[in-house]
Amino acid sequence: MSASIHTTTSVGSPIASSTVYNPDQSNTGGSSMGSSEFSPLPPHIQRGLNDRLYEKRKQAALEIERLVKTWISTEPPNKSKAYVAQVIIILQRDYLYRGSNSYTRKGGLIGLAATAIALGYKDVQVHLASLINPVVDCFNDHDPRVRYYGCEALFNVSKVARGHIMPYVAKIFDGLCKLAADEDANVRNGTELLDKLMQDTVAEHVDKFDVSTFVPLLTAKIKSNDKQIALFLVKWIVALNSRPNSHLLKYLPQILEGLFGFLALDDEVVFNQTEDCLREFLNEIREKPEAVQYAAMVNTLVYHTKRTQIKVQRVALVWLSEFVKCANREMLPSSPTCSRPFCPSCPSPETSPTSPERSTSNCRTSSRRRTTTMGCAWEGASLHPPPMSSTTTTLQRVSLQCLPAP
Model's pTM, two decimal places? Predict the structure, then answer.
């Protein structure tokens, strides 16, 4: 965009600077979108939000910002709160949900952003649900320009709300995950900047973030085979795991399968970033071996030792090796399963027609015959991969307001 709606300047409003628009004194201002009921928004602002030209929509949004600030500073709290609530309802109903044209919906979005900016951190919390929910709904709009303006609007709302946004992180995360793979480059750029703001906000208010309620959503998303979504999710996992007291290691069994699935997507950038993520978890396992649920992850690792990609096999073998080193006696019940990658005659769980008891017996017999081989595999051979040159992806950080108006 050519300018930011963050900046409130003299915009030459049709309302004289000495005049304060009072909705109680105007019963003729009905909505320009066809509603005949009372409206706290002057008709010329409503027309401006519905204009085809971006500059006129921006002008109307700046006037909303100034109008809301005036109400807050001059009206009793209950009355100003009621005025703002009515403005938000009009923008939702008449512009976002009933707007048949994309420019009408874009006008509604920029109007909501201007309202949030005018409210400021102190007053925005009471209206936050009404501001966030309709904006996130616009992430599903068929017009990519509306989706882009949705990213911009939510960026502005979140920038104002800061820690107040925490109860809505899961909903916003769900919407961003869809936009991460958007076909439109502008939408992806806007998503990236909004995503970075959300991660920073969570990092600053991690004490208010409930990982236990977030992990089920993460677990559902991590089954995706889309490379862009994979990168999006890995960044979130890394960001969360890097924060003190996030306790994400506790939930590793629920996301490990998905992370190894990302390794197998045959994309170098996805592989490198996922491997770095797994390496951080492995370092944490070495530091806190008593906090790991080894048995819950063994079958996942064994399965991925049978992948056709050598690099994925290597990572799985490294993890199995570390499990044996860190867990000691805790791994004894899982030793037949762990020995399968080194014991070809042991039937795998997904292909064996025999009973679990028979499979375990076969593994134990074969493992006794291969004591020397197993000792070499765990102790003599180095399973640690050589250091890989990390691929640094420079992501373009373009301000939402600096992109050309779609």
Answer: 0.75
